[in-house]
Automatic annotation (TrEMBL):
It is found in: Membrane. One of its GO terms (cellular component) is endosome. Keywords: Antiport, Ion transport, Membrane, Potassium, Potassium transport, Sodium, Sodium transport, Transmembrane, Transmembrane helix, Transport. Residues 38-450 form the Cation/H+ exchanger transmembrane domain. It comes from the Eukaryota. It holds the Pfam family Na_H_Exchanger. The chain crosses the membrane at residues 22-44, 50-72, 84-103, 123-153, 160-180, 229-252, 281-304, 324-342, 354-376, 396-415, 421-442. This is Sodium/hydrogen exchanger. One of its GO terms (biological process) is sodium ion import across plasma membrane. The keyword Transcription does not apply. It comes from Phaseolus coccineus (Scarlet runner bean). Residues 518-548 are annotated as: Disordered. Its main location: membrane.
């Protein structure tokens, strides 16, 4: 009997080989789908087929492969080859997805110059922080009321707030690529981009706060919930800013060595490039290790490194940083959309709760409207009439709220955080919402922009220079206010907002006079000498990161 169950040495040697073969086949399959996605995306972009964005193409490729696997009865094998864990997403795929848009936008200067972004920074923060909070709460309350009225699957109130938080994370990569192809007002582009970058941090902080409340329901009052949220957000921000300043200081010392010593320049450039790539990941892992939010940390590390560390890099290091983050971000984002399509066909979803999906989509649209239009009203309170965000821009902002990688990853995590059935329902609904928004909204973005008349060939009022305040005519857009613009209204809300603008102007002066000279190799005036580019409605024409 013992000889019948005994494993021979030959069989023992074959087992690892089988595992290696299966792993090799899985990696080969993933590479083939990535190659197909990039090639198909290039063809669609070259043919200007906006109805099928690149993200939609990647999602459809994953869906087709998953369907073929089911038909050919190889589901078990392919599932073993193509496994996906949320830890892998959060620790490896998410950092470049979050970091690259910031690095590319403010470093390479191709997608967007610094001036439109920072001149609209107050509005961006309002949409991303206050707006995301409003959207999360409104979505959670509506989903909870829908359950009470038997319109949809009923979830506890805290779980509804968790769902509201995770589904409020926007990912308008598809929309922004079409914005850039068709040509839109740079201020609209800056608002959509800036909100998407900052609101991911807000959404994940809200989700983790609600998850903590769910895990420890006793002794949690509103005050402790707010304290927990502030602890996570402020702590993560502090960690990110601290790592960013350390990076800037080290890069400044390396730059000084290259100027005033006889050290090998090539080795120094290699060192500064490696450090510039590693410090954001160091910030992310530090925050995660401390139980904080790596997303918030890496976001503020990227902002600080952009503003201070970048100017200390050599030109070759700048090119490398932009190319590196673009490469890994493209691979990570494409892989996530492929997996989402693959997951729809392979996983056991709770498709029985169609009402939850249907009403969730409606509630998300309502919450998005509450976010955009209420925040736009507050922003317009402190802007003169010729500088207010026009209604057509507000509609474009509302329409641009696609859901993507962040919402999908948080929903995947909710399967483990919530009881069986609840998490699966949220995961199924989130997957369906991501797919529908990417396919329908992403594919109809071009039509939406044309209908709102925010694209076209009108070049009567080009942006003369990123060093000056943007100036558009009344029909095409609005003028982004400088930080020191005073409000003529005397009501209390406007006075408080005016004080905030003065504080921002004071920080700008401190940054220009003290921080920039201390942490960088340039003086505070050089930021205003940026390369000019023209863009209002005919596209983005910036200096490529690969130009000398």
């Amino acid at each position: 009997m013992a000889s019948e169950i005994e494993i021979s040495p030959a069989d023992a040697r074959k087992a690892p080989g089988k595992d290696q073969q299966a792993a090799g086949v899985g990696i080969l399959l993933q590479i083939m789908m990535l190659v197909l996605s990039f090639v198909l995306g290039h063809v669609l972009r070259r043919k200007k087929v906006y109805i099928i964005p690149e993200a939609s193409a990647s999602l459809l490729i994953g869906l087709i492969v998953g369907i073929l696997a089911n038909i050919s009865d190889t589901e078990t094998s392919i599932r073993a080859w193509f496994n996906f864990h949320e830890e892998f997403f959060f620790l490896f795929l998410l950092p470049p997805i979050i970091l690259y848009p910031l690095i590319d936008t403010v470093i390479s200067g191709f997608s967007l110059a610094p001036k439109p972004f920072f001149s609209n920074f107050g509005a961006i923060v309002t949409f991303a922080i206050l707006g995301t909070f409003i959207a999360s709460i409104v979505t959670g309350i509506l989903v909870y009321l829908g359950g009470l009225l038997f319109l949809m699957y009923k979830l506890p109130f805290v779980e509804c707030l968790m769902f509201g938080a995770l589904i409020s994370a926007t990912d308008p990569v598809t929309v922004l690529s079409i914005f850039q192809e068709l040509g839109t007002d740079v201020n609209l582009y800056a608002l959509v981009f800036g909100e998407s970058v900052l609101n991911d941090a807000m959404a994940i902080s809200l989700y983790r706060t609600m998850s903590s409340v769910k895990a420890h329901p006793s002794g949690q009052n509103l005050f402790m919930v707010v304290v927990r949220f502030l602890e996570t957000f402020v702590g993560s921000m502090s960690a990110g800013v601290g790592v960013g300043f350390i990076s800037a200081l080290i890069s400044f010392e390396i730059h000084s060595c290259s100027l005033y010593s006889r050290l090998d320049i090539d080795n120094l450039q290699n060192l500064e490039s490696c450090l510039f790539v590693l410090f954001p990941y160091f910030s992310y892992m530090l925050a995660e290790g401390l139980g904080l939010s790596g997303i918030v940390s890496i976001l503020f590390t990227g902002i600080v490194m952009k503003h201070y560390a970048y100017s200390n890099l050599s030109q070759s290091s700048q090119r490398f940083a932009s190319a590196f983050f673009e490469l890994i971000s493209s691979l990570a984002e494409t892989f996530v959309f492929i997996y989402m399509g693959f997951d729809i066909a392979m996983e056991q979803h709770s498709w029985s709760h169609v009402g939850f999906i249907f009403f969730s989509i409606i509630f998300i649209g309502i919450a998005r409207a509450a976010n955009v239009f209420s925040c736009a009203y507050l922003v317009n309170l402190v802007r003169p009439s010729h500088r207010r965000i026009p209604p057509k821009y507000q509609k474009a902002l509302w329409y641009s709220g696609l859901r993507g990688a962040m919402a999908f990853a948080l929903a995947l995590q909710s399967v483990h955080d919530l009881p069986e059935g609840h998490g699966q329902t949220i995961f199924t609904a989130t997957t369906a919402i991501v797919v529908l928004t990417v396919l329908l909204i992403g594919g109809s973005t071009g039509t939406m922009l044309e209908a709102l008349d925010v694209v076209g060939g009108d070049n009567d009022s080009p942006l003369a220079s990123v060093g000056t305040v943007t100036n558009f005519d009344g029909r095409n857009g609005y003028i982004a206010p400088p930080y020191n613009e005073e409000s003529s209204s005397g009501n209390k809300i406007k006075m408080k907002l005016k004080e905030f603008h003065k504080s921002a102007a004071s920080f700008t002066a401190i940054d220009k006079n003290y921080l920039t000279p201390f942490f960088t190799s340039q003086n505070g005036d050089e930021d205003d000498e940026a390369e000019p580019f023209t863009s209002t409605r005919s596209g983005f024409h910036g200096q490529s990161p690969y130009s000398s």
